Amino acid sequence: MTAPLLQIRNLKKHFDLRLGAFGEKGARVHALDDFTVDIVEGETLSLVGESGCGKSTTGFAILNLHRPSGGSVIYKGTDLAGLDEDAMRPFRRDLQIVFQDPYSTLNPRMTIGEALSEPILFHALASKAELPARLAQLLADVGLSPRFASRYPHELSGGQRQRVAIARALACQPRFIVCDEAISALDVSVQAQILNLLLDLQEKYQLTYLFIAHDLAVVRHISDRVGVMYLGRLAELAPSASLFATPLHPYTRALLSAVPEANPRAPRDRQMLQGEVPSPLSPPSGCRFHSRCPLARETCRSQIPEMRAVAPGHLVACHAVTSATSTNWEASE
Ligand SMILES: Nc1ncnc2c1ncn2[C@@H]1O[C@H](COP(=O)(O)OP(=O)(O)O)[C@@H](O)[C@H]1O
Ligand code: SF4
Ligand SMILES: [Mg+2]
């Protein structure tokens, strides 16, 4: 087993809102709690879950772009959580992020060449003389011709802009990239191209990905492991094949029944999600899913279910799941 690239333990991120922002005094958003996982070098770990369940916050907290409220992120023997920006600088190069909207990373007034040169020069990864060759290499890596260097973001298609955003991350010669809904805004045919590009680059440069997405069908094909999040907590974490063949957490099962194409063999007749995700300002006690779970019983309202391994590498946080083959599904109500 390869050593973990990142060891994440009990990572938390709470946002304290200004008085009155939601009409509540000193309201606190529980965006992420007790996120614990080892991210293995070279793997693609995906995070899925409904909008607002804390996926982006997880990516930002791991990279210390949002300073965590608690927990640790061990990278190269150092806990990144809470390092100030100066202390983070030696690690920034290695740890990159690609967003859904490349406009947020690309300055409209900079040519693509200038945008790609910026991180290279900042991290002193090439001299001025070496720069043109490096830019051509980066553009070639993402499937663009060298003439794109003189173009502006608005002259590019959405897919081409996302290729540039990936090239900008690659410019730093990273080891870990958070892809935060990086393909979600693209047309389906372009999504497939960008996914293939990400997979090719992973192999070529031994990259490790945290792939955040809401499209379960996409995640199934590209992930080594998948984590399912609900209201700021991991509900289930498993190798992709196990998760889609044997989803155990009621929330995962509900998510999969809503998207039958994600896995034709997944249970579809068990349960559909009812109601809305509760507010993270006052998440439900015990299991955060209890207000929507058809299997909820008294224990679920008072005790937080811990992540437990029920099969090799398959972890579930649910009082009703006792093993990978023995669940209390029928014990509903
Ligand atoms: N800067 C912020 N200030 C306050 N609340 C935030 C902030 N960023 C995210 N949140 C809240 O944290 C929760 C998780 O958000 P997010 O991580 O963006 O979810 P996802 O990426 O899964 O859609 C949401 O309720 C969101 O409104
Ligand atoms: S712990 Fe209880 S409420 Fe939570 S998912 Fe399991 S059965 Fe449902
Ligand atoms: Mg998000």
3D architecture notes:
With 333 residues, this protein is of the alpha/beta class. It has a domain at 4-41 and 50-90 and 227-328: Rossmann fold (3-Layer(aba) Sandwich). The chain has helices spanning 55-62, 85-92, 112-122, 131-141, 158-170, 188-205, 216-222, 240-245, 250-258, 298-302; strands spanning 4-16, 28-40, 44-48, 70-75, 78-79, 95-98, 176-180, 208-212, 225-230, 233-239, 308-311, 314-316. The strands form two sheets. An eight-stranded mixed β-sheet has the order 6-7-8-3-9-10-12-11, with helices on both faces. The protein has a four-stranded antiparallel β-sheet with strand order 2-1-4-5, with helices on one face. The mean pLDDT is 91. Bound molecules: adenosine-5'-diphosphate (ADP), iron/sulfur cluster (SF4) and magnesium ion. Adenosine-5'-diphosphate is lined by residues 15, 29, 31, 49, 51-57, 280.
User: For the record, what is the CATH homologous superfamily label of the domain at 4-41 and 50-90 and 227-328?
Assistant: P-loop containing nucleotide triphosphate hydrolases
Structural class, from helix and strand content? alpha/beta
Radius of gyration: 21 Å
Biggest β-sheet: strands ordered side by side in the sheet: 6-7-8-3-9-10-12-11
**Might you state the CATH topology name of the domain at 4-41 and 50-90 and 227-328?**
Rossmann fold
Query: Averaged pLDDT, please?
Result: 91
What is the beta-strand fraction? 15-25%
Order of helices and strands: EEEHEEHEHHHEHEHEEHHHEE
Biggest sheet record: 8 strands, mixed
Shape: globular
In terms of per-residue confidence, which ranges show pLDDT below 50 for 5 or more consecutive residues? Answer: none
**Molecules bound to protein:** adenosine-5'-diphosphate, iron/sulfur cluster, magnesium ion
Contiguous helical run count: 10
Helical content class: 25-40%
